[in-house]
Specification:
The strands form 2 sheets. A two-stranded antiparallel ribbon has the order 1-2. A two-stranded antiparallel sheet has the order 3-4. The protein has a domain of 105 residues. With 172 residues, it is α+β, with helices and mostly antiparallel strands. The protein starts with 6 loop residues before the first helix and ends with a helix. 32% of the residues lie in helices and 10% in strands.
Length: 172
Amino acid sequence: MPAEATAPVFRALPGMQFPDRVPRPQRLDFGPDAERGILASLPPKMGAPYVTFVSRVDTDGNETAGIIATELAVPVATFTGWNLRDPSQGAPGDLMSMMGSTVPLARTAAERAAKGDPRPSIAERYGSRDRYLTLVREAATRLVTARHALAEDVDAMVSRAGALWDFVHSSS
């Protein structure tokens, strides 16, 4: 789907902004012998931009395509593969190269309501840390059953999820 189709989901999240510009690489024509290393056109002639697509996202803003990691199957945050530049750097609506975002879910329904966050809170989803870790273990086991993860890695996935839970609950 075009990147712009995901904009309403991200714009609904408190503190999130969708990029002002979505980069689209352009075709470059260096001449008929470019594949042999002979460049006849410098600078190259600019062609039409490539068509670019992004994965669909759920109502939390997490990707739904491919192998779904436990962090996305049992989320305590929205995880994106993109991040915007800090306003202090200039061009705040532009994408920051090679950086993703983590936008924690509200911890409680009251916090969610106060922030105007449309995503159900962690407490509304899971009730407790133990319930959350049980669901993570189940998601990790499904990955093992599907042969996308090793059984010996399940405990590490659950441990990492516990650390993520603790981190989200320690921030204000």
